[in-house]
Amino acid sequence: MNDLIKIATSELELFLSANLPSLASDWWQKQVVDRLSFQQQRFVQERGYKKLQDLDFAALLRILDQNWFELSGSLSLPKEARNWVKELQTVRNKWAHQ
Fold it and tell me: Which pTM was predicted?
């Protein structure tokens, strides 16, 4: 499972890196930091994270989910894909908190 999560983290980071910057000039703050949970935001600030590669799978999934409307509009993502994101969040949370 660890290997699968590492692969998924890497692929999700690539996808977000390729698409979030086109949403706003200050995309790091608006599309990343502002969309994280309070705890994740504090973690980013305390550690001085400045790029998506610094974030874990849970944070990247949240960023994808919280930016879904903007991303799906510009990329014509299928509606079912939002459910897949939610399912991935559930699986990741069950795995991480067992």
Answer: 0.91
